[in-house]
Amino acid sequence: MDYMDIFGVWLSVFLTLSIFSYLYKDNPFYKAAEHLYIGISAGYVAVISFWQQIQPNLFGRLWPRIDANADMGMFKSAWYFVYEILNWVSTLGGWLDRSIFPANGIKGFDGISWIYIIPFMLGIFMLLRLVPRLGWLARWAIAYIVGMAAGLRFYGFLNSDVLMQVKAATVDFSGDWWSIFNGLILLIGTLSGLVYFFFSKEQTGIVGKISKIGIYFLMIKFGASFGFAVMGRISLLIGRFDDLIVSNSPQNYYATLWILSAMIVLLGIWAFFDKPETEELTV
Amino acid sequence: MFLKRQMPAIIAIGVGLFILFGHFINNPNVQGFVNNDATQWFDIIASFAIFLGALNMLKLQVLKVVKKQRNWQYSILAIFGFAFAIFAGFFFRGANYITLTDIHPQNVNKLVEYISTVQEVDDPVLMVKGIQGSLASYEIPKIFISRSSAEAFSVTISGIAKDVTLGVKPWGAHVQIKGSLFSWMFFKIFTPLSSTMFALLAFFVASASYRAFRIRNFEATLLLVAGIILMIGRVPVGELVPWWLVSTLMVFGIGALIAPLIPDKKLLFGIIIGGIVLTSGLGILLDWNLAVNMPAILSLPNISEWIFDYPTAAGSRAIMIGIALGIIATSFRIILGIERPF
Amino acid sequence: MDLLKKIFIALGSMDRRFIFLLVGLSVLLPKLYPDLFTLPIKASSHSQRVFDEIDALKEDSKVLVSFEYGPSTKPEIHPSAIALLNHLFSKNIKVYAVALWPDGNFMATEAFSQVADGYGKKYGVDYVNLGYKPGGEAVVKGLASDIRTMYTVDLLGNDIDSIEMMKDVKNLLDLDFIFSLSAGYPGSKEWVQFACDPLGIPMSTGCTSIQVTDIIPYVENDQIKGILSGMPGAAEYEQLVQDALNERGIVVSPGKASINMAAQSMAHVVIVLLIILGNITYYLTRKSGKKGGM
Q: Which of A183, A217, C193, C249 has the fewest CB atoms within 10 Å around its CB?
């Protein structure tokens, strides 16, 4: 293993134990790791979104790869001149190698899709949210996303989450008594649960009684969710402990042991000198 | 004012109607746009929204440092983390690889030995097999972050094959390939931080359960019992819970349910004890210790599976339909222009 | 008796860090001493259903595997991914990988690197990794219509039309099965709503424990054919795959989820005991409070 790998193991153990140190109390190790996480995750998602979506699917459609020797015409040449300007900016005036804008266009699509200027402009408008005077332009981009999501979800949820679920709640009386019983449980549970969520009528009398049954089914559901939530969290904890144990191997120079020991000592010193804020205020 | 207020509403309504009715309009251009381009536009704008979020985070952290607000020193780390991710993503590829051409067959084992000095090899026999199948051209699985380390290694293995060439993975692919600087950042910094943040919750769930999970009423009891049955029944330890413990707990449960109907506590106690004796006796008589003889209802995993498949599914279905109706109503309001969340 | 009551009441106010220590030890000890804590794994009906659906697929079928999880949920879902790839590759089924989460790319790469070579599978011929696209349900909808509008190149930058196994795949209708490895949004729900229900393509899922109760209505309605719920589900599926492959003479080592089931079980027992203890303490405190008030 090379030094970068070993350094990486020690760094990952340090960051893991820094987050776990919160179990003792909020401390500088935890705060530092938390802030690093905020920065890294924002950068990470931005980089991935750019290289997986913007560069191939937007820029690749606006400036697809062309034959350098072909006759383009004035308009197309002017368009690819814009491409070269963007490249000049992205390479800091030609100081860096070409990356985002490779020579002669981006491999992928065959012809220019001019219509993609619209999402490009809407994307720029989205970024203008950071400029106070022009921030209102972001509403156009958000409006597109909201409208698109509304149209998409309307059909998807109506079909899969309403119609098909209502169909599934029916009872098949041709089966054996056990399957009929289970079918009735599902039907009664679904109906009574839905009655509980119906707030347009006062929940008294027969409606109140059905609603009560609905609550019981919902409580069982929440209990199951709780059980599964605990299961999920414990699984993740096991995963972290796995990594800490593997990092404590001789090849990694017992990283976990050394870092844990150092952290306990340093946290002890910090806790000894750390005064609560109220004490400072009273001085 | 029209551009600021009415125009966004027109866009949202127009797009919403177009996408919704696009399902039902049998025109290839409309279908093509709705199914392909409209979704691509959504993806592209969503990506820009991600950049906006990242830049907004950066702006907040920078302002915190500039104005020297509380704990501003930690914000430097946040800015550093962001800058490092951007550097690894856009300015430093760090995805150097080595390709060997015409490997000498007798050098294959030696090559695996060399590779094991720079990368962990789980199964050397499998790797030998893989190389033997690609003697004409073989790309070493190790990706080098720095050009100099790749060059140093290529010198080490120069006698192994006829030709040793150095290459760099293309921009874009470098963020996905294991071994590049970006992937190093992902596995050594991002992964431990995000995983541990989630794993931390395991402790707090346990603490909160201990302090707050109380049997105050029948509904809370249902919730607790369902949770406990599922927690124990879904893991292997549930198989070890003996039938008599399950039957005893069932008798206690029935006793708790009928307790309000029996004012005489001695009678209630007698019924419970009688129930336990009866079920235990029956179990011994019918030899329920053998799995084939044991009724399914006395197996905790079976009980947990039934609770999961039926009452839980019913409750989940009710919630799912309720949420779906809410989303449909909200989507309809957006399409009609009544709701304007922008 | 009074002493016992006092002990229980005192335990009720114990520092939460002691509880953290108990939970930590309940997970750590089985990991450090695995021989002391071995438990049998029995497959549930849902895990069996997933196994049966995959096992029923014929050789050269085309299966799309969608990686919608990241490192934070890797312990729960990644073992399912490994077992699934073992199962698919052992049956010579072609695997098409996509990711709706950015982290899914790395998970997919890691899974393939761990499994593919053992079966002699070649990239581009037996499996392909198309990579991540942002957009959630919009991506699923796009794939349902035409894969090439979403992906022009694969994860490694290869032109999609140059990949042998992509030649006769235009959209999701050309595939035989979808498997979603899901940790949240976007995930299994979006595959059901925008691909499987509209197009009638069969689908299974391996998801985090937290998501399971939300997905179960789809499973119960046969919209999703079986579910691997969290790490226990993954362990059950690993066991089924291991047994099946061992029968066919393919040696597969025990998966990570199976190895971790002892730790999972111990932690659950400790938490249940803590809840019971908490309720006993609550009951005793309430009783002594009532007596004091009288």
A: C249
Question: What is the arithmetic mean of pLDDT over A250-275?
Answer: 92
Per-residue pLDDT of B37-54, as tens digits, reads 888 898 899 899 999 999
Could you give the percent of chain C with pLDDT greater than 90? 59
B320, closest residue in chain C (CA to CA): C214
Does residue C9 sit within a domain? no
Cβ atoms of residues A42 and B82 within 8 Å = yes
- CB contact at 8 A, A186 and B310: yes
Task: Give pLDDT, residue C290.
Answer: 61
Which residues partner with C204 through β-bridges? C179
Question: How many other CB atoms are found less than 10 A from the CB of residue C164?
Answer: 11
**Quick check: A279 pLDDT over 50?**
no
What pLDDT, on the 0 to 100 scale, is given for residue A282?
41
Beta-carbon-side half-sphere exposure of residue C254 (alpha carbons within 13 Å): 11
The pTM assigned to this predicted structure is 0.88
User: How confident is the model at residue A1, as a pLDDT?
Assistant: 58
Six-digit token string for A1 = 């293993």
Which residues does chain A have within 8 Å of residue C256's beta carbon, measured at their own beta carbons? Answer: 242
3-class DSSP state of C97: strand
Helix ranges, chain A (H):
3-20, 28-49, 60-62, 74-90, 117-127, 138-156, 164-168, 177-196, 205-247, 255-273, 277-282
**Which C positions 115-144 lie with beta carbon below 8 A of chain B?**
117-118, 120, 131, 133-136, 138-139, 141-142, 144
Give the pLDDT confidence of C216-236 residue by residue, as tens digits: 999 998 999 999 999 999 999
> DSSP letter at C159?
B
CA–CA dist B40, A144 (Å, integer): 12
Regarding the domain delimited by B93-175, which CATH topology (the fold level of the hierarchy) does it fall under? Answer: Ribosomal Protein L30; Chain: A, (3.30.1390)
Q: How confident is the model at residue A128 (pLDDT cuts 50, 70, 90)?
A: very high
Q: Could you count the other beta carbons within 10 Å of the beta carbon of residue B253?
A: 12
CATH (domain of C222): 3.40.50.10160
Looking at residue A166, its amino acid is: V
Q: Is the Cβ of B292 closer than 8 Å to some Cβ of chain A?
A: no
- Which positions in chain B touch C149 (Cβ < 8 Å)? 36-37, 39-40
Q: Angle CA(A63)–CA(A65)–CA(A66) in degrees, nearest 5? A: 105
Domain that holds residue C53: 45-258
Q: What is the mean pLDDT of residues A86-107?
A: 89
Element (H, E) at B175: none
For chain C, the domain total comes to 1
Residue C35 lies in a domain: no
Q: How far is A159 from chain C (nearest CA, A)?
A: 7
Q: Is residue C153, in this structure, part of any structural domain at all?
A: yes
Question: ipTM of this predicted complex?
Answer: 0.88
